[in-house]
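stage 2 :: seqdesign
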């Protein structure tokens, strides 16, 4: 795969931009206030524009290109499958669909051996919630405030961040609770142990006061992604599992972002020794080369639908091109030690490097993460932990983060910025040299953020 941009052609870039502005309606955006970069190509950990500017992709696009851009094995698999069988309705048994399901089931924890395919993460969450409600016969679902689960009807209502607000009719049967986050503890905890204990007590209180017999599921990102990459303290997820078992509640772990190597494990659940009843996935399952997501289902829940039809489906469920990309991605990740690379780079390069940056830059309040899944919390004042920008800031209020992001891009780094944080989420294939290049660019950009501190 080439990581070198071809000869710049600004005229082509201008034409691409003009067509985009004339016809493309972008998600999560005020259409007249955005200026999309016209991308010419990508390879490995980089992408580039038509003006010849190359960017180290510290965002993995939307934290999904886990094996990097244009991996030749996956590109070849898509081409081969397109020549053999482009599409087939989900009601048929297709070799590549069955193989993708087998490879995923081999890696999921416990007895999550049945795979329901979707087109992406939001649909996976949507169907997991439906399965839980039908399995239990209960209406309510619990989710955390600091979370993101997707933009479809149930998924957006489960979401804790402000993207939910315009779509929240308050009638979706969702109850929210505070998950652990020691740096901004809602429980006034002073240690990970206190945070874990108090968060579990708060969750059980919520269950008891809501009525356990009314609650179908607890939906949690194993390690929350967009909301801030807050690694749960030891004991928390096993404690949630125990509460679910005690009250007959389905545990749904959302691994759409954390799965497939991102945390240095095939699934983040493996790190915490927890087996959910349902596990949602997407993104890294095939690095987003062709849209694919799904739900891994326990034997008990699968049995519910053995003689009872499951009332859900998608025209493109288990699309052959997407499944071919998944087979090639998983096989390549296993063969090239990509999950192990993510763990090593996180432990030996990114983690230590970010802690060094934190020691040098007064705008850094905390760094946290695993594998190639890290967050840098930017603050105005380390003592008070006041965020660099207010919660859900826009316009002038967001100027410090906009300046920081601009400095990253000027240094050749494409960042993942959300609220007062930058996330360090490069491909799982990133090399030590590339990671250090990115950390050096972050070092420059943090000097800009430092100007806004107290």
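stage 2 :: out
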């Amino acid at each position: 795969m080439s990581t070198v941009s071809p000869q710049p052609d600004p005229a082509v870039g201008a034409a691409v931009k003009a067509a985009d502005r004339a016809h493309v309606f972008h998600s999560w955006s005020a259409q007249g206030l955005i200026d999309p970069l016209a991308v010419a190509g990508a390879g490995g950990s980089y992408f580039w524009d038509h003006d010849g500017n190359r960017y180290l992709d510290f965002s993995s696009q939307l934290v999904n290109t886990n094996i990097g851009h244009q991996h030749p094995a996956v590109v070849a698999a898509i081409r081969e499958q397109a020549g053999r069988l482009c599409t087939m309705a989900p009601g048929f048994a297709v070799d590549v669909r069955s193989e993708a399901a087998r490879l995923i089931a081999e890696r999921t924890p416990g007895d999550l051996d049945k795979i329901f395919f979707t087109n992406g993460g939001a649909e996976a969450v949507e169907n997991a919630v439906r399965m839980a409600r039908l399995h239990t016969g209960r209406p309510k679902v619990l989710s955390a405030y600091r979370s993101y689960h997707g933009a479809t009807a149930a998924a957006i209502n489960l979401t804790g961040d402000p993207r939910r607000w315009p779509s929240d009719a308050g009638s979706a049967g969702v109850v929210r609770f505070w998950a652990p986050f020691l740096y901004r503890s809602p429980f006034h905890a002073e240690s990970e142990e206190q945070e874990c204990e108090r968060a579990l007590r708060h969750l059980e209180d919520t269950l008891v006061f809501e009525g356990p017999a009314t609650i179908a599921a607890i939906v949690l990102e194993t390690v929350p992604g967009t909301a801030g990459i807050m690694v749960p303290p030891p004991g928390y997820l096993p404690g949630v599992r125990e509460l679910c078992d005690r009250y007959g509640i389905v545990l749904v772990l959302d691994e759409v972002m954390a799965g497939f190597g991102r945390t240095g494990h095939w699934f983040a659940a493996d790190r915490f020794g927890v087996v959910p009843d349902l596990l949602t996935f997407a993104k890294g399952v095939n690095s987003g080369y062709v849209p694919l997501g799904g739900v891994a289902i326990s034997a008990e829940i699968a049995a519910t639908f053995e003689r009872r039809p499951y009332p859900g489906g998608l025209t493109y469920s288990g699309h052959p091109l997407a499944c071919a990309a998944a087979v090639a991605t998983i096989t390549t990740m296993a063969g090239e030690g990509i999950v192990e690379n993510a763990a090593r780079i996180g432990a030996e390069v990114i983690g230590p490097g970010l802690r060094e940056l934190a020691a040098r830059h007064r705008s850094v309040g905390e760094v946290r993460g695993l594998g190639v899944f890290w967050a840098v919390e930017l603050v105005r004042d380390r003592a008070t932990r006041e965020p660099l920008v207010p919660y859900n800031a826009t316009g002038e209020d967001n100027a410090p983060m906009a300046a920081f992001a601009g400095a990253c891009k000027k240094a050749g780094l494409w960042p993942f910025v959300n609220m007062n944080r930058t996330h360090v989420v490069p491909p799982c294939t990133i090399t030590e040299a590339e990671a250090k290049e990115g950390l050096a660019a972050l070092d420059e950009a943090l000097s800009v953020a430092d100007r806004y501190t107290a």
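stage 3 :: structure notes
- The radius of gyration is 22 Å.
- Residues 104 and 115 are 8 Å apart (CA to CA).
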